[in-house]
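Field reference: sequence -> structure
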Amino acid sequence: MSYPPPSRARSGPRRRTLLASAAGAAALLAGCTSGTGPASTVSSPSARARKRAAADSTALLARYDAVLAAHPGLGERISPLRAAVAAHAAAFDGKATPSASASASPSASAKGGGDDAKHGKDGKAASATPGASPDPVPGTEKDARAWLATAERTLADRRARALLDVPGELARLMASVAAAGAAHAFVLTEGDK
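Structure field:
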């Protein structure tokens, strides 16, 4: 037996539609909190990945600074790469532009010391900032470039593996920075062949 259609057509939205809309609106409003509640103390995997990427870029930036301090003759060749790494650190950190120290002239950080200040007793260059890197800067420019290239390659590989664990926007940023790191490694070792 079939039921006859209702005698009058319903006007306006149905009850299910209203309930679904209200639930959706509540979910959207709950996602737009100020971040001062207890949920803000727990960081998401995405936030942790972004924080680690910023720390990795900052550590790489410290390596560039150490190399520039130990080998000022590399300034022209690696300063553009250093500037890109500073921009990467700023992008992961959520800042629009690199910090003031990132735009400082590399030759200014290399001034002020003679050959004894740049090199240790064993002929290897001393690190520009103690604790910035566990390894001392290699003594020759070629070795220093290879040292930076290895660090760039290692970081690019780590970021490429991490792409699977992060959401869209961060994955695109990490892919772009990983590709830039691979290109930096190539540029750093290009003249060695």
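Note: Helices lie at 15-31, 45-70, 75-93, 106-110, 115-118, 141-162, 168-189.
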